[in-house]
Amino acid sequence: MIAEIKFNAGVLPKYEVIPVNVSKPPKEFKELGLHLRVPALFLSLGKKEEFEPIDIADDIVLELESRYPGGLLKNELEAEAESATRNLFSKFCHWMRGVAKDSGHLETELAHLDSHLSAVSVNYPQADKLYLCGDRLALVDCEVLPKLHQVRVAAQEIKGYELPRNLTHVWRYLHSAYSDPAFVKCCPSDTEILLHWLDTGSVKLSARQQQLLAASSGKPPTFSFTVPATATRVELE
Question: pTM for the complete prediction?
Fold first, then answer.
């Protein structure tokens, strides 16, 4: 997603994404000397400069930011945004894996996120899009939005839990993501998200859910990109 944003902004040259099954990696992947970890970054810089492949996510981000700066919003709200979202995904994982008995801790973190976004919206009242630091995607959004979308899809399909509609700023945040070409292009389908959680062995689907998942095999992928009407900013003339 970071690479796509930078490419759209014209600061990163054309790039290619190669899906890799780490259990059966292609020959080219093995030849790079990687330790069967994904994602991985390889830059072809020519003979004058050799580049060692990187397969640590944080290091990939640092490399892209240092070599191809720009494309992402940077301001004083980044630290506050990181603080407001720090525990969101971990609380979700605890609930999914049975560590937490209910969604209470997750809902507390969602409320923190909604409160932060509400404060940001005050400074951008006319903005068509709302993100954690303003009206454009920041680095922290690239970390939070894919996870928040996982929360939305997996919680609904596996736990029968829907994000509360009164969290209007959270829904507007998701609506902004669903309107962004970089997020849409990089977002996995609903089925891929569910299969990821099943592969972890931490969740079990009901017989009905398993039937629905099996029925989706071979069909065009579906994406949960809809939002409640109250999440969209509307101006009346």
Answer: 0.86
